[in-house]
Amino acid sequence: MANEPQKAGSGRVLLAGPDYAVVNKAIGEVCESCGPDRGKSVVESVRAELEGLAGRALPELQAVHRIDQPVSGCVLLAFTKAACAALSAQFADRRIRKLYRAIVEPPSGGFAAEGGTLEHRIRFDRLAARARILPLSETPRSPGWKVASLEWSLAGLGETYGFLEVVPHTGRTHQIRAQLAAAGMPIKGDLKYGARRSERSGGIRLHAARLSFHDAVTGAYVSVDAPLESPDPLWLVFPGTAT
After folding, report:
1. Could you tell me how far CA 189 lies from the centroid of its own chain?
2. For the purposes of burial, counting CB atoms within 10 Å of the CB of 135, is it exposed (0-12), middle (13-18) or buried (19 or more)?
3. What is the pairing mode between strands 206-214 and 72-78?
4. Is 179 among the domain residues?
5. Domain range enclosing 167
6. Does residue 61 sit in helix, strand or coil?
7. Does 1 map to a domain?
8. In 3D, which of 213, 204, 200 has the Cα closest to residue 96?
């Protein structure tokens, strides 16, 4: 494979380079390639296709980052440990940009603004499998709290739901879900964070729509959009959503 990123493969493989790929994770899949949920792993789902594109076995294939099981969209996979380390460094340095689209229940008093910045302290409670949130001004009484920050903007407004574009500045576990809920805007279907009812798909209305980063070999700027698997009238509110 050449050193330039290439459009490649099925709808699952959005872009393939010499040592990485961006794939479209489906609702219900996990990003881990080991453990009890391996059969639901996006890594294993696309392994055969990526090995065919690369022309070699990829025993070190792994996800560079994670998105939650009920969330769909862009996931960056590395073919080797070295590539994973190089791409992970971009996440650590906040050089990778992520854009999410979310359908939310509006605040009780309606939207007071068309966008803004949310900043909290956050800690993931593994026993409860959910994130805990504190105001940034509050001093936590236990260790493990980190700052979480995101920007949101209102892309559309219906009678029942708000349609947000979200750019996280940090990559904390369940960050978007917990921060939007703390601001009175739980994501549709996200019962864990206060949504009124679940989704038939078993997922939530949060989609990792775009991932932008630098190719670790060439330095070229790469930006990839993930189409929705089954866009319905709610998703189609977002401008540019493919039918």
Report:
1. 16
2. exposed
3. parallel
4. yes
5. 100-193
6. coil
7. no
8. 213
Element (H, E) at 176: helix 175-182
Q: Where does residue 218 fall: left (phi above 0), alpha (psi -120 to 50 degrees), or beta otherwise?
A: alpha
Alpha-carbon distance of 153 to 165, in angstroms, equals 5
Write down the residue that tokens 């994130």 correspond to.
Answer: 131
> In the structure, what pLDDT confidence band is assigned to residue 1 with cuts at 50, 70 and 90?
very low
Q: Which residue has the tokens 């494979």?
A: 1
pLDDT score of 153 more than 90: yes
Q: Do 25 and 86 reside in the same domain of the chain?
A: yes
Rg (CA), the chain: 18
* Residue 207, both tokens: 């989609």
For the stretch 88-105, pLDDT in tens is 999 999 999 999 999 999
The answer to whether residues 183 and 228 belong to one domain is: no
Report d(CA 18, CA 53) in Å as an integer.
10
Any residues with CB less than 8 A from the CB of 3 and at least 6 apart, and which?
Answer: 17, 18, 217, 218
Q: Do the domain assignments include residue 145? A: yes
Provide the token pair at 130: 């959910």
